[in-house]
Structure formats: structure tokens, C-alpha cells
């Protein structure tokens, strides 16, 4: 059997900063490069490594080659984490997030550096530019890292892995735009639930579980039919993952999530949870949600009032039913696959972790 999940996380966590330094080596003598790399290392230093874990699970389902330091699934897991860093740098900037994993978001970190050093110009503009460019750098480094993983497998497996990666990276950009677009559309109690679910599927669900799972399996030599079966498992599990993440964005504990309480409400995220509440709310509740969601100056009392509406409308319970249904759908699809018992157990454990986490 391959490395346990905890060991895998350690292997990937060790590989990620090494990859960032290795793939930027030709530029290490340039003045200013260390600011960019240090910001990247701060951003990449945390995280659950769940995407890497699903990649390794896909690998072990179709390969008996152990998951060890430098092996294809670990390097591919590193590529996924580097890509995740790029997505976070850009996402936090677009959302106006102040923190990430208990630290200043990249654009805030770089703005603060500008101000502390007394540089010319606007600190916030510098921070925004830095976050965009760090994201671009991490996208490039992630692609280089993926190619290193692909170089360890045969041509057919390499081609399937590349196709999976290309689909994932393209879809995240499309999904991110759908998310940005949803924030500026008029409120619609009739359409917002399905619109929010569409964003969930294309921005995060497939990218969090389905694509990493398929990527690991593709590298291991799984054929198209096997990849299709795994995708039937991964999509509903990914939806459950993101729906639970949206619960944490409203009800999570700041010391655990690394973000202020109710931060998603201040950012005005059009989540499924919020859409369900708007659909069930009375006129007074709906007016309060329209007025307060998206206000960056929400107080703790304001957040508490919105939470109360989410609960009293039944939105929290209905949302939990959706989470449970997607989790069950993914596990049912997993039960239909002819996988080794150890792989089945590993995927079941990972699936249960998706909605049992506090951060």
C-alpha cells in the first residue's frame, strides 16, 4: 500500500516550496525576486492537501507503484497545490479578502510591504499587481511540475494526464468568471439556487475532487472508461466539499478557518446557502439580506442576525440535506467501481473528511 494520507501530505508539503525554488532558479539573482517568492511560500505553506490526496488515491487505484518522495503522484500533487496557490492569490484579490489561512492575503501582504518601505505610488495598487503576478508565476510553475510528473509515465498515460490538467485549468477560469458574474446580477429567488450550484460545479467541485482524482488515475494508466467512472464519484463529492466550505464561510470559527467570522457574508458571496435563504425568506428577512450581504463593514451583531435568518428560514437544514445527498451519491458511485479494497477504503475515508472538517 502507498503512503498513508498524513505521510502523503508531508511529502507534498515538502515538495511544493522546493518546486517553487527549483523552477525559478534562473531568476534568483534578480533584485526583488525574493519578495515574490516569499509571498508565494507564505501562501503555499498551509492547506489540507486534499487535492493531492485525491490525486494519490487515483494513482493507487490503478498502480502498485508506491507513493514516495519524488514519485509521479507526489509531483502531480505538488502541481495541484501550486495551481491552488495561483487560484487563491487571484480569488482573494477579486473577493477583497483580507486574510488567508490566518495570514494576510497576498495582495494585503504586498501592499503592507510597499507601505512599510516607503515606496512611491499606491500600496494597494502595488499589492494587487503583485498578487496577479504571483498567481501567474504559480500557474507557470505548476505546469512545469506537472510535466515532471508526466515524464515518469508512458506516452498514453502522459497524454491523458495532460488532457485532464488542461480541462481543469480551463474550467477553473470559466468557473471563476461565472462566480464574478453572479455577484453583479440582480437577485433572483427563482434562479439563484441553480445558478449558484452551476458556479460550485465549475469553479471548485470538479477542481477540488474530480479532476485531481482523474489526474492521478490517468498518470497510473487508467483508460477512458475508468476515468469516466471515477468522475462520477468525484463530481458529487466535490459539490459536497464546496457546499460544506460555504457553511464554514458563515459559521466557521476564525481561529480554525483562518478567516474572520462571516467573511463570506462581507464579501457578498452568492452561495447556495444564501440562495436557499432568499427563496424561503419573508419580505422583511429578504430586505435585510439584500441590504447587508456584501457590506464589508458588517459587525459581529450584523453577522449574527444574518446567521439567524439562514437558520430560521430552514436554509441551513435544506443546505445540509443537499450536502448529505451529494456525499451519498458519490459513495454510491464509488461502490459501483471495481477497485482494490484498499483504494475503496482510502477514497471512502477521504470522502468522509470532505464534510467533517472545521477548516
Verbal overview:
With 359 residues, the chain is mainly α. It has helices spanning 5-23, 33-44, 50-62, 72-95, 106-117, 123-150, 155-184, 192-219, 224-251, 254-257, 263-267, 272-280, 283-292, 300-312, 315-335, 341-354; strands at 99-100, 103-104. The protein has 2 domains: 1-152, Farnesyl Diphosphate Synthase, CATH 1.10.600.10; 185-359, Farnesyl Diphosphate Synthase, CATH 1.10.600. 75% of the residues lie in helices and 1% in strands. Strands 1-2 form a two-stranded antiparallel sheet.
What does the overall shape look like? globular
Largest beta sheet: strand ordering:
1-2
Secondary-structure-derived class:
mainly alpha
Rg of Cα set: 21 Å
Helical fraction: over 70%
Poorly predicted regions: none
Fourth CATH level, the homologous superfamily of the largest domain: Farnesyl Diphosphate Synthase
**SSE string, helices as H and strands as E:** HHHHEEHHHHHHHHHHHH
Q: What characterizes the major β-sheet?
A: 2 strands, antiparallel
Cα-to-Cα separation, first versus last residue:
28 Å
- Give the averaged pLDDT, no decimals: 94
Percent strand equals under 5%
Number of strands: 2
CATH topology of the largest domain: Farnesyl Diphosphate Synthase
What is the CATH architecture term of the largest domain?
Orthogonal Bundle
